[in-house]
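User: Good morning. I'm curious how DP6 would be positioned relative to this chain. Could you predict the structure with it bound?
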Amino acid sequence: MTRTSVASPANIALIKYWGAVDLERALPLNPSISMTLRECVTVCTAAILPGGGEDLIQIAGADGILADAPGRFARAVAAHLDRLRARAGRDVPIRVATRNTFPTAVGLASSAAGFSALAVAVTRLLGLRLGADELAELARASGSGSAARSVVGGFVEWGMAGSGDSAAIRVLADASHWDLRDVIAIVDETPKDVSSREGHRRAPGSPHYAARSAELPRRLEVVRAAIAARDLAAMGDVIEEEAIELHLIAMSSRPPIFYWGPGTLRVLERVRRLRADGVPAYATMDAGANVHVLCEPAWEADVQAALVELPDVVRVIRDGVGEGPADAPPLF
Ligand code: DP6
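Assistant: Good morning! Here's the predicted structure, ligand included:
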């Protein structure tokens, strides 16, 4: 195969990965559960370059035109390519190009989408046929732990304690099991100034870290059961607690990290009012200011209408549960 092209999704964590046993290998301190998205994807096209030479790493601009990727991103991709080549035992130069359908580095898991897309596209290109756990491990080796959860669709748990392998992933339910919607309120499109990696490093220093850890076994159980029963209300409080405590821990880390902004609080307030008015919608955030509002399909239009009215909301992305990486039209 000389060229592959894959679209791989972002995911939104219901139970957050926050804190690592080993940051380099992205081994989590706690299990996490996410929902794989379907609209927020990274398209990654990869080809073996004929005639040897250097890798060519490109990124599509807003106009779709490919240009050389900027330094830091290109270095992270090059390091990932080296790991994938080593795994395949093939030392060939590769051209890769990526394009995101959503804003990058604003807490919407663009690195999860990007590194899972690279892992899937390049391993296929190099002739490897890998199972989900192996792909997850390769995606995670990029340092973006949450990328492990993006190599499969549906509702995914990663880092199960007691499973014998703290890095394994497990599909709790396929995408077809539950048509849950995610209305994403974008309140800030500027890239965050402190990486998630730095957030993981500082997290255990927060005085709130241990208290949240003590809650986790119960929360994991609640979310697993709610997914099985397709009962959003049953996990609504827990997913909001998880999001708020992720930010509480970040804000009380030393030095503190502020991922959320005034718009975040206004969206959270609006979601509480929606619930008071009888709309079952629940909010969660990853390490960024933007807010994911989960609801059943019947409420999606109401949720969107309420969010677009807020002056802080720049735009809204309507997303839902996705099936994981899939073939995509090539970028070159
Ligand atoms: C808050 O280390 O996977 O999103 O490399 O930026 O994707 P990126 O982050 P990663 O940490 C993710 C942290 C989180 C929670 C989660 O996705 O579980």
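The helical segments are 71-88, 110-125, 132-140, 196-202, 209-229, 232-251, 262-276, 300-308. The domain at 181-320 is CATH 3.30.70.890 (Alpha-Beta Plaits).
Let me know if you'd like a different ligand tried.
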